[in-house]
Amino acid sequence: MGAYIKPVDRSVLYLQETHISRTISSDNIDTILEVRRSDNRISKLYSSGLIHNRVLTLLNEMGLYGVLRCGFRPIDNHLITALVERWRRETHTFHLRVGEATVTLQDVEIIWGLNIKGQPVTGTDMSHTAEEWRQKCVELLGFAPTASLVTGGRLSISVLDAHCRENQIDNDSSDLEVVQYTRCIALMVIGGCMFPDSRGGVVSLMYLQLLLNIPRVSRYSWGSAVLSFLYRELCKSSIIGRKIICGPLLILQIWAWSRMTSLSPDVHGYCHIVPAAPDVNDNDYDTILPIAPYGARWARHFSHTHTSTHSVRIIREILDLMEDGQVFINQYSSILILTFN
């Protein structure tokens, strides 16, 4: 099981009494956290090619397109569980045999391409009635969801998905329609990928106040907000009794794969992460964002021939036996490599 569940100095790890690692025993050794995610709809919408380039151009101007470019990957809840068991609320770090490690602002910026400087992502919690929110949706999103679908200032991502599929943008769409449609997509990215909560499948309409002015959206430090949200979810899920975890867990999984060689799968395929000459025969070439974020590397096919997956027992043991050479400190020094074996 590893000695990490018994801190040597409790003056540092003073929250051990309520830490999830304290409850690991032979009776629940295979218990894992349930991963809640809400990014499947926006990922399918994007991968199906239904989002017009006029919308993607604006989304890129907002600084959010990189999240979509990284694609959708299954989350290994066994890996996430093993990492949560080593997360410490006291230090906001993972305690490993070789030392402490954590996800940083640099990781978020490089993996998803989000801005980590600028204005904080904050605002006023506007307590509107369902009807007032419907009017806001008409003005900013271009449609009015039924009042029953607006609960507590939150809107179902499935409603946004249905609207976007039924009212697609084309070359003849007005500029206003493109802007409203882009806000719908941005809300799906925000609520589905960046800040998914335990309710699953809903997004707070409070974010609309940050999407009023398209050019100003990129000035917000979205990366800082994503990292804070991830830290909060890790802290909550490391408490005894928690059964679910949400948040931007794809970033955590890619971080673990990138930093720890003993956990990293083999990646196969090709992805543009540096500028290249357009190739009409290359379906992967993106003229809007030719330089894909690092996370796009993991949107390719990969295999676990040399690593373990979906086995919390084995992953715990891998973390227990980890050595210095199996953890990369400066993993991003070679991100300009084009091909991956």
Q: What is the end-to-end distance? A: 34 Å
Number of strands: 11
- So how many helices? 12
Low-confidence stretches: 270-282, 335-341
SSE class: alpha+beta
Instruction: Please describe the biggest sheet, giving its number of strands, its sense, and whether it closes into a barrel.
Output: 3 strands, antiparallel
Share of β-strand residues: 5-15%
Average residue-wise pLDDT: 87
Strand and helix order: EHHHHEEEHHEEHHEHHEHEEHE
State the share of residues found in helices, binned by percent: 25-40%
Strand order of the largest sheet: 2-3-4
Which overall shape is indicated by the principal axes computed on the Cα atoms? Answer: globular
Gyration radius over CA: 21 Å
Short description:
The chain has helices spanning 40-47, 53-61, 65-69, 77-84, 105-112, 130-141, 157-166, 175-194, 214-217, 222-237, 249-259, 312-320, and strands spanning 34-35, 87-88, 93-96, 99-101, 150-151, 154-156, 202-204, 244-245, 266-270, 301-303, 339-340.
Structure commentary:
- It is built from 12 helices and 11 strands.
- A hairpin with a 2-residue loop joins strand 5 and strand 6.
- The longest helix is centred in the middle third of the chain and has 20 residues, at 175-194.
- With 341 residues, it is an alpha+beta fold.
- The model is unreliable at 270-282 and 335-341 (pLDDT under 50).
Topology:
Layout: E1 34-35, H1 40-47, H2 53-61, H3 65-69, H4 77-84, E2 87-88, E3 93-96, E4 99-101, H5 105-112, H6 130-141, E5 150-151, E6 154-156, H7 157-166, H8 175-194, E7 202-204, H9 214-217, H10 222-237, E8 244-245, H11 249-259, E9 266-270, E10 301-303, H12 312-320, E11 339-340
